[in-house]
Amino acid sequence: MQAVGDYRRCRGATLYVTLEPCSTHGRTPPCTEAIIAAGFHRVVFGATDPNPRHAGRAVKVLRSAGIAVTCGVLVEECTELNRAFNHWMTTGQPWVVAKFATSLDGRLTRRPDEPQWLTHPRARRHAQQLRARVDAILVGAGTIRADDPRLTVRGVPGARQPWRVVLTRSGRLPTRARIFTDIHRERTLVYCGQSLRAVLRDLGSREMVSVLIEGGGDVLGEAFDQRLVNEVQCYLAPLIVGGPVPAVGGAGVPSNEARIVLEHSCFERMGQDLCLQAVVAYPPR
Ligand SMILES: NC(=O)c1ccc[n+]([C@@H]2O[C@H](COP(=O)([O-])OP(=O)(O)OC[C@H]3O[C@@H](n4cnc5c(N)ncnc54)[C@H](OP(=O)(O)O)[C@@H]3O)[C@@H](O)[C@H]2O)c1
């Protein structure tokens, strides 16, 4: 939280937040300082900050400044809203969302002589909202070579452009690709010859809290094989494409017991397409 603009109108007001306000200097000055300076009378927050430097400290700081504090309101709901931050804070790894559009028979691509899109505009607009919520979009070099995607956020007013991250082993990437030449080119990172796990760790150390893996099938397969995906966002199109290349490649699970289950599934119809959003649960090893 940053104290910006005229916040005198907050004097005597109650502040409601999902997460305990921070009380130390990080990317921004402490939220508690801004709250005290603004003259809030009362603060209500949901979940305690898992950051050990903060956990519960805001209550003491605010109360000693004479501000009434109520905490633990709708804890479960607030924790869910903050799950990406909580995951990053406790593991150092970003929260990873695997996002892909597939045909009914689980294929990521259409024939080269056909339009690239599998889904209709409504699903694609929804996917743009998802991009707007993450810190980075990650793809394999195969996707850059095949599609030359922009990997930008479009049609979401005020959205910030996430980092664009590309994995390659060969280093074979077209220098004229849009991600290297457009106005956001400074926000493109290329990792050559590093494991996906190492790349995610590095992104976490750069304070990237959430990463969207957008494919292709090779990288998605590796992400599931290594149990790195936390959430799935899949757009299912009523198409049969056929062919040998599945949406999620990789080695696959070694046994039925090791299968990856999706929990808290939420289905939404988007015109002719269907969107599935779910959290990934990995069985014990
Ligand atoms: N429907 C959708 O939602 C969707 C989304 C994205 C893409 N696609 C489609 O998917 C197709 C591309 O998929 P794909 O499976 O062929 O390729 P991909 O997964 O995009 O890229 C594979 C390449 O990524 C690099 N790579 C993978 N893992 C790596 C690692 N751990 N470290 C370093 N580099 C790594 C390698 O690049 P090098 O070969 O350079 O070593 C590998 O050949 C395209 O046809 C595209 O249209 C569809």
Describe this structure in words.
By secondary structure, the protein is an alpha/beta fold. The chain folds into two domains: 8-81, Cytidine Deaminase, domain 2 (3-Layer(aba) Sandwich); 91-281, Dihydrofolate Reductase, subunit A, CATH 3.40.430. Helix content is 26%, strand content 25%. It contains nine helices and eleven strands. The strands form two sheets. An eight-stranded mixed sheet has the order 7-6-5-8-4-9-11-10, with helices on both faces. It is elongated and about 65 Å long. It starts with 13 loop residues before the first strand and ends with a strand. The model has no long low-confidence stretch (mean pLDDT 93). Bound molecules: NADP nicotinamide-adenine-dinucleotide phosphate. Residues 100-101, 108-109, 118, 139-143, 146-147, 167-170, 172, 193-196, 214-219, 222, 249 line the site of NADP nicotinamide-adenine-dinucleotide phosphate.
What name does the CATH topology of the largest domain carry? Answer: Dihydrofolate Reductase, subunit A
Content of β-strand: 15-25%
Q: Enumerate how many helices there are, as a single number.
A: 9
CATH homologous superfamily (4th level) name of the largest domain: Dihydrofolate Reductase, subunit A
Shape: elongated
